Sequence to fold (307 residues):
Amino acid sequence: MTPAISVTNLSKTYKSGFQALKNINLEIKQGEIFGLLGPNGAGKTTLISIICGIVTASSGTVLANGHDNVKEYRKTRSLIGLVPQELTTDAFETPWATVNFSRGLFGLPPNHAYVEKILKDLSLWDKKDQRIMTLSGGMKRRVLIAKALSHEPKILFLDEPTAGVDVELRRDMWALVRDLRKTGVTIILTTHYIDEAEEMADRIGVISKGELMLVEEKQALMAKLGKKQLTLELASKLKSIPRTLARHQLSLSKNGAELNYTYDSHANRTGITTLLADIKKAGIAFTDIETRESSLEDIFVSLVRAP
Fold:
């Protein structure tokens, strides 16, 4: 099956000499939710802008459903919907008017039933005749999503779509995203809410300093890089870790009340049995043991901090 998005040897260097993207190669499958994670300034928005035809690449190619986004710009643009970070809306227009107008920009005939469905799905129907300038930030972001969906795109980019949105609106948006995926729409999202990517995405890409560090199935990534942490709640506080325990690479909590041990849960030997035996020999008593598995956030932080 032809990939929804295919990026080959993509680089972007600005006139200032700053290289925002470095030889990016990426394929996004039809009908998946792809999470693109990275710190501020990593190149996420630049990559999305190039794929959507807003920014010109310095080198490389981008295909959308097999169509070159430079040679067949109009075709690829009609396939793609984009929800940008910035709340750029027509302040004096109404949601109803601006969504219908956006649909017309793509040369599509009016479809009031479809626009009505979008506005209702986004809980905007009761606001359809209000000026956008009077809406809250969360509602304005919903209008941006409605505009992006106005021309019935097959590929939808969501660039930090829930920034500044309250919990209820956020939950409604992701219900809509799931429904869109069921209809075959491919969704690419960037987010600072890593729990959001962990819950929603099928695959994860991590970008840092303009380089795509990895692309993995979410579950495979967590199995490969995930760690478990064993926390021992001590009966008496320690000022420091005894030298006899140095080989276990333990960490002591700031208040001296807990010892933490990180291990690979998939390894043949976790070292826990030996650790507990050594702790007993050291005369250290503990009152409780707790284990915690690494989240996607832990993995992400460890990747972007790697030298």
